[in-house]
Amino acid sequence: MIRVQSPSKLNLFLHITGRRENGYHELQSIFQLIDLSDWLEFTQTDTQDVSIDGLNSVDLQQNLIFRATEILKPYAQQPGGLHIRIEKNIPMGAGLGGGSSNAATTLIVVNQLWKCGLNTEQLAELGLRLGADVPIFVHGRNAWAEGIGEHLTFIDLDQKQYIVLKPDCFISTQLLFSQKTLTRDTKPTKFCAYQLKPSDFINNFEPIARSLYPEVDEAMRYLNQFGTAKLTGTGACVFVEVTEDMNTDEILKHSPCKSYIVNSLKESPLIHFKV
């Protein structure tokens, strides 16, 4: 049995800079990997079936872990049955990329188990078919993202801690994108500009999420007492950077919803994975 860590991410900002003819939105963002992680266990079986335990709320055909194995089957030199068990710690529908991370973890591990022989770039390209956030977890490095999130420039970020709150609501990404008030023409910028003044960089979805979901607004107002709160992805999680003067225990204790303290990662634990 192979047991591996599947980390999550924060979007340190998220700008929508345009819209393509096919309806997809152009964006700019920074992906920061964090140590809030799911754990996946892979056990090879004597059958040819893939079974998944621990995520029963998601239909198997829609499960990104299962879909990742299906994508790899045409490349398998040594295919076989798998039982995959997931220990879920990353909240779902949170903007933390848990599902995308699980898919990327599966691609990395099963690529080796089935001797598919694919390199990181090839796995990332396959991962894009599962979701725009999957390639960042395949590469396992912090990145400046453009396009629909697939054009990645790897960057070094300072080690930090964050307080993350998960409001008790499930945000519809489709609903947020459909809002006429969504800013879709933020001026494109550069990583060096972010380094000079990160406070100028916001999440274009934040005002809409706060308006449509009172739970998000409550979490933002709570964290804004202690720093500059931000929405990650299309939510629902919000976060604030930890500073020396914060009493993190008290902040977590009085949080209006589920709360976490997380550490930034320089790279994914999977980056050097070998069977």
UniProtKB/TrEMBL annotation:
Catalytic machinery residues: 9, 133
Top enzyme class: transferase
Full protein name: 4-diphosphocytidyl-2-C-methyl-D-erythritol kinase
Residues covered by the GHMP kinase C-terminal domain: 202-250
Keywords: ATP-binding, Isoprene biosynthesis, Kinase, Nucleotide-binding, Transferase
Listed pathway(s): Isoprenoid biosynthesis; isopentenyl diphosphate biosynthesis via DXP pathway; isopentenyl diphosphate from 1-deoxy-D-xylulose 5-phosphate: step 3/6
Annotated Pfam families: GHMP_kinases_C, GHMP_kinases_N
Annotated organism of origin: Acinetobacter chinensis
Residues the record lists as binding ATP: 91-101
Keyword field contains Transmembrane: no
EC number: 2.7.1.148
Gene expressing this chain: ispE
InterPro entries named among the record's database cross-references: GHMP_kinase_C_dom (IPR013750), GHMP_kinase_C_sf (IPR036554), GHMP_kinase_N_dom (IPR006204), IspE (IPR004424), Ribosomal_Su5_D2-typ_SF (IPR020568), Ribsml_uS5_D2-typ_fold_subgr (IPR014721)
Annotated family: Belongs to the GHMP kinase family. IspE subfamily.
Source organism superkingdom: Bacteria
Known function: Catalyzes the phosphorylation of the position 2 hydroxy group of 4-diphosphocytidyl-2C-methyl-D-erythritol.
One MF term in the entry's GO annotations: 4-(cytidine 5'-diphospho)-2-C-methyl-D-erythritol kinase activity
Coiled coil (residue ranges): none
Location of the GHMP kinase N-terminal domain: 63-140
PANTHER family the UniProt entry points to: 4-DIPHOSPHOCYTIDYL-2-C-METHYL-D-ERYTHRITOL KINASE, CHLOROPLASTIC
Catalyzed chemical reaction(s): 4-CDP-2-C-methyl-D-erythritol + ATP = 4-CDP-2-C-methyl-D-erythritol 2-phosphate + ADP + H(+)
